[in-house]
Design goal:
single chain, Nuclear Transport Factor 2, Chain: A, four-stranded antiparallel sheet, 4 strands
Length: 94
């Protein structure tokens, strides 16, 4: 999760594509040039150790755009694909 946040922050689209499951990766990963990512808080994790095939991460990503500061709160599902963790999808908050 931290590496994907960093990739969003610096615009590393190649890494984002590699770390996103091909079944759910959008064809266009162009970031909003007016958004600056300013911080990441990991709120919770579930599974996702070397012994698991999937895991979840709940986080808040902070940003600033033309409207001012904001945040994105998400629970993300990750799965192993060819031995690497990849982002699959957001999960509903519960």
């Amino acid at each position: 999760m931290r590496s994907r946040y960093s990739a969003f922050a610096v615009g590393d689209h190649a890494y984002l594509r590699r770390s996103w499951h091909p079944d759910t990766c959008p064809p266009d990963l162009e970031p909003d040039a007016g958004t600056t990512w300013t911080g990441l808080e990991i709120l919770a994790t579930f599974e996702g150790t070397p012994f698991h095939r999937e895991g979840t991460v709940e986080f808040v990503a902070h940003y600033r755009d033309a409207s001012g500061p904001g945040q994105m709160h998400e629970r993300s599902r990750f799965v192993r694909r060819d031995g690497a963790w990849v982002y699959l999808e957001p999960l509903p908050h519960g």
